[in-house]
Each structure stands twice: as structure tokens, then as C-alpha cells.
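Lab meeting, action items carried over

1. Structure of the two-component assembly. Owner: GW. Status: complete.
Input record:
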Amino acid sequence: MSLAPTVEVENLTKRYSRHLALNDVSFQIPAGEIVGLLGPNGAGKSTTLRILTTFQSGTSGTVRIGGHDVFYEPHQVRKIIGYLPDRNPLPDEWQVEDYLAFRAKLKRLPANRRKRLATILEQCGITEIRRRRIGKLSRGYLQRVGLADALIHDPALIILDEPTIGLDPNQMRSLRKLIRSFAPEKTVLLSTHTLSEITALCHRVIILDRGKILADESTESLLRRVTDFSEIRAELAGPAERIRQELQELAQEAEVTVQSLDEPFCRFIVRAPRTSDLRLPIARLASRNEWPLRELHLRENSLEEVFSRLTESHLPQ
Amino acid sequence: MTAFALLTRYELALFFRRPSGYLILASVMFLNALGVLDVVLAIRNEAVDSPITEAVYQTPFFWLIVLLAAPAITMKSYAHEYASGMWETLTTAPVGSLQIVLAKFCGAWLFLIILWLPFIGYLYLLLPFFDNPALLDPRIVGSSMLGLAMLGALYVAIGCFASSLTGSQMLAVIVALVLGITLFLQSFVATQFPESAGFASAFFNHTSLFLHLEDFVRGVIDTRHLTFYLSLTGFFLYLNWQVVEMRRWV
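Predicted assembly:
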């Protein structure tokens, strides 16, 4: 089994006529890590992966995989990567086994091809459909055949573009288990816009939006950031401005916003560090001032919120 | 097996895995049969002393096959792969773009040659209608097939080039037909110029498909004709390769 390579991306820019798809993107992936590339549609995830896989070239910047420059040594790079593209295109006319055998030969798999083919069919759970025509397969099986194609030559770097898209929860679980088993022998880079995928699979996450990196940190630290803040929603009736000031006084570091509801109620949103639970003080404040309190709700900050905040350029400080 | 040989075999096998491959085969056989019928009707009351291959070559059905078969064969070569995304899986495998271009060309060309094989059978079917068996000398059949293969290579290269330009198979066919028919029609121009027309006459005579194929169907293998077909085929394959390379930059 080959050693997992490192990925080094430096100042990568990609411009499509007037549209800037990637803007000075730099990141490194150490060997053996599973890294998730996260971002909304059009963030530049697929463009990044296409440049890494030598399918496209960047407008400027350098990308090295296992020490090989993707622009100057594409052939060397292609030998060590396994790639599952976005749409997972496969030829309908072929039987699964014939197609994978063809791909194995094309990727210069050595003499033990039959054994490797049997292993990969087993690993991807497609042994029983090996004689079926690709055009007749369900979405889940197609995804597995695509993954088997990406893995057939035992690549050191696996690049997966939205690998679990269109899969049912069971298929998703088994595919994730398979991907997790690759580390630390292999480096995995996958793109997704599903946050649960990142937490389930990745050691590190790179968040992209409109061609720029918004965050590049360990999944652990991102999760910590998520749990650092919480949001309390209180629906109170009373003088809105005075209530806002009183709430602000409860916690200096909190951020209070007011939304008008049906008269006389207003919704007060208090974003405060997770350490201070303000529910009880808010309840007491309402009782002391005889402000009718209709709702008091602690909302845990979700990954989705952090993601939307980041991609809306409102980075929580 | 080298990546080139492997890809060529894959490309060729695809024609036999798709219904469209059999449809093209059936259409070519049908047009060939019409060509034979045309020859039979033409020679009914005439004494013929030219080779049978030359008689067939003069029928419109023969040229219909020449003009239509290659675009039909090559329309999917690149356009289908661009549109389906399979181009991405192919070009991210450890294979060079020149190998891909040559393999796609060779796969389509071999299929075109296979399409013409029944033509030999048709020629022998015609033999009883001619008094002289010498009119179907195996050497003449051989040179005719070589000429057809050369002409086919040129049209397949044009088709591959056209297909490499676009993700639409329909557009690929249209571009290939326009280029192919232009090349065909300009062969007529040569006949309109008097010998004294100088450069124009020389140019159109040198680029006339009819004149370059004529010697082959009469049993003459002239290296000038081979050079013409091979260099034009090479030219379109080079353009094809450049288009493929350029796609990485877009």
C-alpha cells in the first residue's frame, strides 16, 4: 500500500472569463487526514477538486500532491489519486465487473488484478451486482460503483465530490464507515454541503464561499465554536427599549436584538457565551417588572447556523 | 496492453454495446445494397470494361455512406462524454490526452472499416452481371478498400474534431457534415476549371476527393494520394488534440 501523500495548495486562483471561481486559496492537507471541503453551491468546491485532479488548470497559483505539481506532472498525480466526480458518470452499456476491470487495466493495476477486483467489489458491497448492467442500477449502487472505480488502483489520495448525495440513510452510513476506514493509510479530501457529513467523517474542515476560504480548522475546534455561543429567545410584553437595556445589563458580552411581534409582545434574542445561562435571570427580571413572559427558550447554536453565519460573512467573534 | 490499445478496444467495443452501432451498420448495408442495385440497373444493356469497384464508386449511394457514416459514428466520441461527465473520469486516469485522441480515432475508424467489409461481399454478388471476371481482380478490391480506409480515416478525423468542439451530439453532427460536405463539393469545383486556370485549377485538382480515390478504385496505389489523405487526417487529429488540451484551460 502506497504512502498517503500531502496536498499543498498555494495562492490558487481560477477565473472563468469574468467570474472568479477561486480567489487566492491556500491550504495544506497532511498525509492520512480526512478533510472536508464545505460550502454552498457555487462556492468553488468542485473547481478546487477539478484542479487537484488535473482535470482543469488554475489561472494562477500552485498545487502539489505528494510533491508532484499538478500542472507540470499531471501523469504522476493521476497515478496516486482516486477521484469520484460530482455527477458520478458511468457508461450505461457495461456490466459492473467488466467496466471495473477495464478501469483497473487503464490505471495500470499490476498482475493481482482479479484479486484486487474481488476485494474492491466486496469492500464496496457490489459483489452481488457485478454482472448487472450499469444502466440498470439504483442510485445507491451507482455511487458504490463510482467509488469502486475511484479505489480500484489503491490510490494514496482519494478525492470525493459529494460522495453521499442521493443515498438513503443506510447507504450513507455504510459509505461513511468505508471512508472512515481509509485513514490513516490514505489521505481523503471530500466536498459536501452537508454539515453532518463533516462531523461524521472529517478531521478537518475547510469552508469555502464565493471562491474564498472562510475557515480552515479542525472539526473539533469548529464544534467547540458552535457550542461556545447560545441563543435565548424571550417573548415579553412591555416597553421594548427598556427591556432591551435591562437584558443587556444582565450580560455585558451578550448581543440583544428585538423583533416586533403581535402587540404588545416583542421577541428579544439574546446571544451570549454558552457559559452563562440567562434563562433564570430573564425570568426574574420579567417577574420583578411585571412584564408578561410568553416564551423563554434556549436555542443551542447549530453547525448550520455557524455555517450560514460564516457564509453570510458574519463571523462570530 | 498499452493504454492506447486498451482505450481503442474500449471505444470499438462501445459500438457493439449500443443499439446505435447496429443501426449504423444496418443503414450502411442498406445503402450499399442500393448502390449494387443501381449498378445492376445501369449495366443491364451496356458492355462494361471498367472495374466493378469503379462502377460502384460512381453511384450516389457510395458517397452518401462516405458523407454520413463518419459523422454518425463519431458524434458521441467526445460530445457524449462531455455532456455525461465521463470525460472527467477518463482524463483524470493516468492516460495522456494524445493517447485518448488517437484511441478514439482508431476505435471509430476500425468500426468504419468493419462497416465497409460487407461491401466486398456485395462486389462479388455483382460479378455474375459482368462478363469479365478480371473486372473484380482481388488486387483491385484490395486497393479500393485501402482507398476507402484512407478516405474513411479523413472523415473520421473530421468527425472526431467536430465532436471534440461541443457537448451537443447534434451540433457535432452538423459541424462534421458541413466540413465533410464542403470537402466533397469542392471536388466538383475542380471539374469546372480549365487546365489553363493555373493555381486555382491546380489547387482544386489536388484537393479533389474524386481524383484521389479514382486511382484506388482502378487498382492503382499512388503515394501522392496516400500522402494527401494521411496529411489531412493528421491535420484534423492535431486540431482535435489541441481542442482537447485547451479544455483544461477553460
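2. GW to write a short summary for the group page. Key points so far: The CA atoms of residues 243 and 249 of chain A lie 10 Å apart. Residues 139-151 of chain A form the longest helix (13 residues).
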